[in-house]
Each structure stands twice: as structure tokens, then as C-alpha cells.
Amino acid sequence: MATIESIQKAYIDHVLTEGQQPKSVYVFAKKNKMPEDEFYRSFGSFDAVEQSVWADLTNKTLAEIRGQEVWTQYSSREKALSFFYSFFELLKSSRSFAVYSIKKHRGLGTPKVLEPTKDIFESFAEEILTEGIETAELSDRKFFSKRYKDALWVQFGFVLNFWINDDSAGFEKTDEAIEKGVNVTFDLFQSSPIDNLFEYGKFLAKNGGLKEKMGF
Prior knowledge:
Shape: elongated
Distance between the termini: 85 Å
Largest sheet: none
CATH class of the largest domain: Mainly Alpha
Oligomer: single chain
Radius of gyration: 23 Å
Number of domains: 2
Strand content: under 5%
Order of helices and strands: HHHHHHHHHHH
């Protein structure tokens, strides 16, 4: 009986050998000696197979990093970095498929194959960002704090595209892109001189009467 994993493996083998999706589920099932309904018990389409490969990789990454002894001691920034480094390390073993999948579905916005991955990632991002705000590691800005997870997803997309085009040995440039990109993003999440200026502006607005009292 076909399993989710065996269908994923057969599908990946097909697209990497043929450079395109199978012509139909019937043809795919026949080639892999399975009844057609076995495919539909697990997936509704070939795109759903690709979505599951990406989602499984994301969940595997999260399971690995959360299983580390030091995980609970990490800051929000360190948890984000751990995810990025671990995800792209795991992705190396599926590079050919990843390049095929993203290039095939590339367009404006989030590629369809990454939609379930985005949900998983944003749930994780919201979790670590909330921790960061509660510990005062990150600045709790009215309106903007809710958008932090969106900024992290944009960073994920940037690194993924960078990695796909990275031809450096061991993908060293991607590691550098992760370090610089995630750190810059978290710098923006932290308190900055702009925040201090804003707070000062609020102070002046609340205490505007001081200037009359002081004669200015």
C-alpha cells in the first residue's frame, strides 16, 4: 500500500527525471503500481504533494531545533537564526527538487507550494516574537508589532531565493545572508533612536503646557 512518503518520493523522482509533473494521476499511479484511489487518499493533486514536501521539511526543522537542550535558553533572535540555519541545512539534501519547485511556481506573492509552509512558519514566528516582546527583547510598537511576523516571512523568501541562486562552496554566501538578514530584521524589531524620539514627542505633547509656564 502506498504511503504519503512513498508517493512523495515517487513524485520527486518523476519531476526531476522528466522536468515536469506527470500527465495525470492515472499515469502516475500506473507507473508506480498503485491503484489511483490510493493517491487520492493522501493527496488531492500534484501541487498538494509538493506542498506536503515543503511543509514536512518545515515541521522537521522545528522538531529538531525545539529538541535541543539549549532551546529554552535562546533569545527570540537566536531561535529565529536557529530555524533559518537548520532549515537550509536540511534543504541541501533536496536541493534539486527545491529549485524545480520554486522556479516552476515563481510569481508575485507567496508561491502556492509554500502556502502551508507559510502558515507553519508564521505560527512559529508569532510564538518567538511574542516571547521577545514579553521579555522586552523586542519593542512592543502599537500597530507594527503585529507585522513583525510578516517581515520575517519576507526574510525567509529572500533567503530562499538567494539560496536557489547561490553557487558558493557549501552555500557559504547563504549562511552569510541569513546572519546579516535576520540580525538586521531583529535590529528593527528592537528599541531604536526613532522609538526614543517618538516617546519624547509623546512626552512633549502631554506636557505642552510647560512652555507657557516657562515663558517660551
